[in-house]
Amino acid sequence: MPSRSDTARSQRFLKACRREATDCTPIWIMRQAGRYLPEYRKLREKHAMLELAKTPELATRVTLLPVERFDLDAAILFSDIMVPLWGMGVPFRIEESVGPVIDDPLRTEAAIRDLKSFDAQRDVPFVLEAIRQIRRELDGRIPLIGFAGAPFTLASYLIEGRSPRRLRWTKALMFDRPDLWDELMGRLTDTVIAYLTAQVAAGAQALQLFDSWVGNLSPAQYATFVQPHSRRIFQALKETGVPLIHFGTETSALLERMAEAGGDVVGADWRIPLDEAWRRIGQDRGIQGNLDPAVLFAGSGVVRREAGAVLSLAGGRPGHVFNLGHGILPETPVENVACLVDFVHEASRRPAS
Ligand code: CP3
Asked: From atom 35 of ligand 1, which residue's Cα is the shortest distance away?
């Protein structure tokens, strides 16, 4: 990691989120603290994923692993989008190669009405302590991003019980019982606002809302069943003063609606060219993305060429945060990550003015 005096690096990501000019384009990588790292796999031999997330010392260590290896411009808290659901009284586990599993999905009115209300200090003190420890360790070198799952993505796990593919039950509830749907989304929105506000109070310097599964909706469905709730989150979080990133995948048809809901920066996946995504999001916002994570399995020449293509579509305009279009894949060659991070910095370097 560079020394504290490297102010250009420490500011790059936050400045780009505010669409201010930077010395070069900042980069961080979604799921950067995960299974492609040999050090992470080693820790996982001894500790379950949720144990890592629940133990502040371990969550801090995992958060810092990628930051020590690569010249990344931001760290992201090691946790999972499901973690605040414990506080709502929903037991879940994380299954290897599957993801979160809820044995008793929420499909009845009684189950939804029985959800407890979330209190960050009471339910996730370990997350807040991890944030404080990570900030101390980072010592101002790079900022820390906090995050939460968006209400729609959380609801889809709650209702389907595992990684949703078709979202049959979720959509059935949405269509059949819009009143109950709104109640569930409202409860999740309250949780997300309380959770993210507490993360900022503990030291998170930017926030990302992950609406990973929202691309399963049509624009009309999004506008009716999701947008009002996501909008409430972004409005409430404005008060924290930290940059807000709004992310989803397969959102090519939804970008305008997502930008309306809010976010200083909107994420785009690789299925849409970055310049087109930026036009649709609006030039008054930043954009994050959007290299195909699979590119990192090709040769380093391809990594540079494809990353260069993303940079040229961004055109050096302030407000681009380089990232993959979705999380980094397990087994990604580590040397290609180093190659990508260094290339993005070098190829986007702007002459000092
Ligand atoms: O970015 C980071 O490095 C921070 C940590 C982080 C994890 N999950 C750790 C994790 C973050 C930001 C998440 C968010 C998350 N979790 C999302 C939104 C982002 C996205 O990719 O769309 C979603 C949908 C989940 C739910 C989830 N948790 C899935 C689908 C899986 C399994 C698939 C996978 O990526 O491994 C998990 C488990 C999980 N969360 C792991 C990690 C490192 C792997 C668990 C393990 O160690 O075996």
From this structure: 99
Gyration radius of the chain's alpha carbons: 19
Atom of ligand 1 at shortest range from CA of 62: 3
Consecutive 10-residue runs of the chain (353 residues): their mean pLDDT? 68 98 98 96 96 98 98 98 97 92 94 97 98 98 98 97 90 96 98 98 98 97 98 98 98 98 98 98 97 98 98 97 97 97 97 66
Residue 36 CA to ligand 1 center (angstroms) comes to 12
Residue 286 · residue 279 · CB < 8 Å: no
Distance CA 150, CA 152 (A): 6
Please report the domains of the chain, with CATH numbers, ordered by start residue: 4-347 (3.20.20.210)
Instruction: Catalytic residue, from 9, 36, 61, 157: name it.
Output: 157
Q: Which of 44, 69, 162, 271 is catalytic?
A: 44
